[in-house]
Amino acid sequence: MPDPVQDAATPPAPAKPAPARAAGSITMHDVARRAGVSLKSVSRVINREPHVSDKLRTKVEQAIAELDYVPDTAARSLAGARSFIISVLFDNPSPNYTMKLQAGAYRACVDHQYHLRIDRIDSARPDAEIVAELAALLRNGRCDGFVLTPPLADIPVVLDFLQAQGVRHVRVAPENPSAQAPGVGMDDTGAGAAVARLLWRAGHRRFGVITGPANHGAAARRRLGFLAALAELGHRGHVAEANGGFAFEGGIRAGAQLLASQPRPTAIFATNDDSAAGALVACAQAGLTVPQDISLCGFDDSWVARSVWPYLTTVYQPIEEMGYAAATLLMDRDGSDAPPLRQMPYRLVERDSIAPPPHEI
Amino acid sequence: MPDPVQDAATPPAPAKPAPARAAGSITMHDVARRAGVSLKSVSRVINREPHVSDKLRTKVEQAIAELDYVPDTAARSLAGARSFIISVLFDNPSPNYTMKLQAGAYRACVDHQYHLRIDRIDSARPDAEIVAELAALLRNGRCDGFVLTPPLADIPVVLDFLQAQGVRHVRVAPENPSAQAPGVGMDDTGAGAAVARLLWRAGHRRFGVITGPANHGAAARRRLGFLAALAELGHRGHVAEANGGFAFEGGIRAGAQLLASQPRPTAIFATNDDSAAGALVACAQAGLTVPQDISLCGFDDSWVARSVWPYLTTVYQPIEEMGYAAATLLMDRDGSDAPPLRQMPYRLVERDSIAPPPHEI
DNA sequence: GCGACAATTGACAACGCTGACAAGTGCAGG
DNA sequence: CCTGCACTTGTCAGCGTTGTCAATTGTCGC
Fold it and tell me: Which candidate, B149, B144, B186, B138, places its Cα nearest to that of B171?
């Protein structure tokens, strides 16, 4: 029950005045006096407004530096149009992903003197409820924009609502980049292709793919890129596939399935690390040693990639960079430079789970 | 280079006015008018100040409910002593731990109409630098208090500085609870003992322990609790020990070491999940099947506990609850109810890595 | 029923900053 | 030298809330 006035049931005790504001903290007045200019001029310099002479700017910046002045966010927010808060809206249950994204967004906020808020919305609920939640969020504490993480970045009702409300938002790894809101993502297709080339170069010719959730676009692109690159490299045979649902247990099942297919693959590409870890177990259960008997490649370079043996060769997804870029996009608003999708570079992380295929017997 | 006035090198483009404040949003004035009382009375009700008659309170609360009023944080912070922001200060590289703690703190903030800030400090640096960082944090954006996560919660210079500055703080899993700052933690000793009893009941009589980093107090307590309970249960033999450093790779080495000791343990207690996962690998490399040939118990119930096969039996650490409790302690300041340490309950999570010992041959 | 005292309520000035608008300044062209 | 215009700089009134202090009410003892 959202009670705007705290929870009436448990009076949180009368607040004793506390030292929130450093007493006698220096303000814009001090800077203005020191620089011998007006208040507004200091404000102009701080906000990089146009029509400020170099001389004045220099004077003010020097005074700011000398006094070690830091503008008060609360006052700026109260007086102006900005709140100096952006929010990362997430639903992704993966702590690894969320944490990294958030870390990147946080860095961006620090760089821009913003605060980062975290909000969660359950994307599985009916549209109407999602909108209601969103509206509550908006009312409850204003913010200058949202970083939308998947799958939130692809829910039409979310996008439409935000647009209708005129709230800025950036989509992370959007399924269908559009001009309406900028997005940051990575080239999943290219990364899938890179995995294919890596495996091919190692000498593999019989492949298996562990696919992801049906509605997960990135997983589909990784698979497609992999398959396309294989075809381009001259591969003609059948590629076995099994769905691992991006989960450990699903990876075990899918791995076992792939191992049972004829002819048995010598290399398996799992479209995320969790399912790759599961596949690793399946291999062990089948009496196969990775990478001597069979090679395995994951995707994400998540925590689990180094919590299994052998360490997983995988694709580093620049999640933190995406968080940084998305947050920056939100704050560096000059209003119009919105490329539909900015792609961050992925990177192959070669560890120990890939080797040349065993000799045929 | 911390530049208070954004980065001079890359002008973030002149900010175009944006819709931060929902236009025509309702304020305290509206509530006051509707309830037919003064502004200050509304303020009193909202802040649960004393000396408010029930009649007035009822009137105001009704008006608030009818108007769906939400106080403006920026204005409150500007006018009053509180900033309505608390910060989780962390250095713990484990995304799992940090994420959970943060999630708990976040929930608490939502419940109290606060914002959560995240700050990071490198605890490995010299004391002087740590203090400088802390001071910068304090100056840069005020907040009403810090949640100190380990190992930050045990650095004397951090504690002293915060106390000297009069900034409230709560310690999470503190090494030496003191009356100076409240702490929340868990009973590591008791949890270690619980593991011992579980293994003993399963029939094990030869044990090994994978210890944690030397300076990690919780790891030491887990070990001690385990050992003490064993002694109490009547165990007299030697308990093999090896240091796993709380890491996967360290766990592999420590596991191998333990497996080589004579007589070989039939059950191993790893003081965290990562090293337990490593031990699992060591067992596999030694040709031992878990849990048929050897039992293994982890600690933390972290993500990896379900990313290995078999799933690890482990101890659930109420990290999120600790985050919630710590944040709540910061916000429910009535100034004096500070128990040195509030212990949150742990829970044994029995999964698949423990079984009765194999028959002697 | 009166004064003293406590409990309750209200008026009003900050809090630190920005937006709108006014005022100055310098330069080209007449 | 003056006018007009573009560029700079300054003045001032809030933004929505809380702290201070004064004003109003209610209560109690005698």
Answer: B149
Distance between CA atoms of residues B174 and B94, nearest Å: 17
The string of pLDDT tens digits covering residues A198-217 is 999 999 999 999 999 987 88
Per CB-CB distance under 8 Å, the chain A contacts of B5 are 45-46, 61, 64
Is residue B146 helix, strand or coil? strand
On the question of pLDDT at A125 being above 60, the answer is yes
Q: Is the pLDDT of residue B14 over 50?
A: no
Residue A351, CA distances (Å) to A22, A274, A308, B122 in order: 50, 16, 12, 28
List, in sequence order, every beta strand (DSSP E) within chain A. 85-90, 115-120, 146-148, 169-172, 183-186, 207-211, 240-243, 267-270, 295-297, 314-316, 342-344, 347-349
Report how far apart, in Å, the C-alpha atoms of A53 and of each of A5, A56, A57, A344 are: 47, 5, 6, 38
Average pLDDT, chain B: 88
Task: Give the one of B22, B47, B78 whose C-beta lies nearest to A78's C-beta.
Answer: B78
Cis peptide before B291 (omega within 30 of 0): yes
Mark yes or no for CB contact B69/A4 under 8 Å: yes
Find the Å distance, CA of residue A322 to C1' of nucleotide D25: 62
CB-based burial, A279-312: b 16+ in 10 Å, e otherwise: bbbbbbeeebebbeebbbbbbbbbbbbbbbbbbb
Sheet holding A240-243, edge to edge: A240-243, A207-211, A267-270, A295-297
- B80-100 as b/e: b if 16+ CB within 10 A: bebbbbbbbbbbbebbbbbbb
Q: How far apart are CA A15 and CA B332, in angstroms?
A: 8
Measured CA to CA, the distance from residue B18 to residue A167 in angstroms comes to 8
Instruction: Provide the CA B63 to C1' C12 distance, Å, integer.
Output: 23
Any idea which of A175-189, A279-293, A331-345, B253-267 has the lowest mean pLDDT?
A331-345
- For chain B, list the domains and their CATH numbers: 28-66 (1.10.260.40), 85-185+320-345 (3.40.50.2300), 188-317 (3.40.50.2300)
Q: Is B47 helix (H, G, I), strand (E, B) or coil?
A: coil
A4 inside 8 A of chain B by CB? yes
- Residues A59-68: what's their mean pLDDT? 93
Identify the band that residue A11 occupies on the pLDDT scale cut at 50, 70 and 90. Answer: very low
Query: Where do the H-state alpha helices sit in B155-311?
Result: 156-165, 188-201, 217-233, 248-260, 273-285
Q: Across the interface, do A48 and B116 touch by the CB < 8 Å criterion?
A: no
Structure tokens that stand for B280 in this block: 């699992």
Residue with tokens 């596949």: A279
Which range has the worst mean pLDDT, A290-304, A329-343, B68-82?
Answer: A329-343
Task: Please state, as a whole number, how many other Cβ atoms lie within 10 Å of the Cβ of residue B298.
Answer: 32
Percent of chain A at pLDDT > 90 equals 65
Place of tokens 């930050």: B152
**Cβ under 8 Å to B: A residues 70-89:** 70-75, 77-78, 80-83, 85
